[in-house]
Amino acid sequence: TVERLAVARGSEWEEEEEELDPRTFKELRPFSNPELGLMDALQCLESSDWQTKEKGLLSVQRLAVCHSDVLAGRLHDVSLAVTGEVTNLRSKVSRLAISTLGALFRALKKNMDQEAEEIARCLLQKMGNTSEFIQRAANRSLGAMVENVTPARSLVALTSAGIYHRNPLVRKCTAEHLSTVLEQIGAEKLLSGTRDSTEMLVHNLVRLAQDSNQDTRFYGRKMVNILMSNTKFDAFLKQSLPSHDLRKVMAAIKQRGLEDSDGL
C-alpha cells in the first residue's frame, strides 16, 4: 500500500542519514553569494511550511561547511532559529535540525561556546524521545559539541541540563558525554578549582554513580575514579568531610573497580 511504501521510504531515508554518505556532502556546495544565502536561510526557518524549513536547515549546513566565516557574524540568531526546530512536530524537520546543530559545532568549534548550554538542553531533552533515530541523531550532535567547544562549557552545559533530569535515558547520555569531558579536562585541573566547585562536581558524580540505570552508574564510577586517581583528591578529602554516599562509591571502586554493584 501507499502507506507501507511511505514507511519503507521513510526508514530508508533515515538509514541513509545515519551513514551520511558522499551524496550528502555533494549537495553542500558553496553559495555564489553566501551573505544572501544566510539571509534566505533565516527567512526559510521563519516559514510555517515544513519543506521551506527543511530548505533553510540544509542551507545552514551548506553555510557551515563552506562559509563558516559568514555564519560567525550571525551565529546566535542562526543557532536560535535551528534550535527552535529541534522540537518541530514533524520528525524529519526535527532530525534535520538536530544534525544541523552537529554541523554547526563541527564547523564553528569554540565560536559555539556561548550557544552550548541552550543547545545541550534541547538535545538532551530529545534523548527521551521514542524514536531511536532521533535519539541517535541527538547523541551524535552532543558528541560533536563535546569534541569541539571549550571543555569547561560542555561541563556546565551537560551538568545543568542532564544530571537531575527525570528521564533515565537523558541521565545516561549525560553521564556518557560527561565522562569524555572529564577526560579532556583532566583530574589535575578539575581538582584545582574552588572548594565549592569541586564539592559540587563530586556530589554530581556520586549521584550518577548511584543512578538507577546500570550504564549511568558505570560512567559515574568511571568519573569518580578519574578524580580518585589524582593525588589532589586526598587533599580534597581532608578539607571536605566526604559524604556517606561518596565513601560508599569509593569503597565499591576500591573493592571491585568499575564493575557494577546494585548495592551502592
From TrEMBL:
Domain TOG: 27-262
SUPFAM superfamilies: ARM repeat
Matches recorded under Pfam families: CLASP_N (PF12348)
UniProt-listed InterPro entries: ARM-like, ARM-type_fold, CLASP_N_dom, TOG
Listed GO MF terms: microtubule binding
Any Gene Ontology CC annotation: cytoplasmic microtubule
GO terms (BP aspect): microtubule cytoskeleton organization; negative regulation of cytoskeleton organization; negative regulation of supramolecular fiber organization
Protein name: Family with sequence similarity 179, member A
Protein's organism: Neovison vison (American mink)
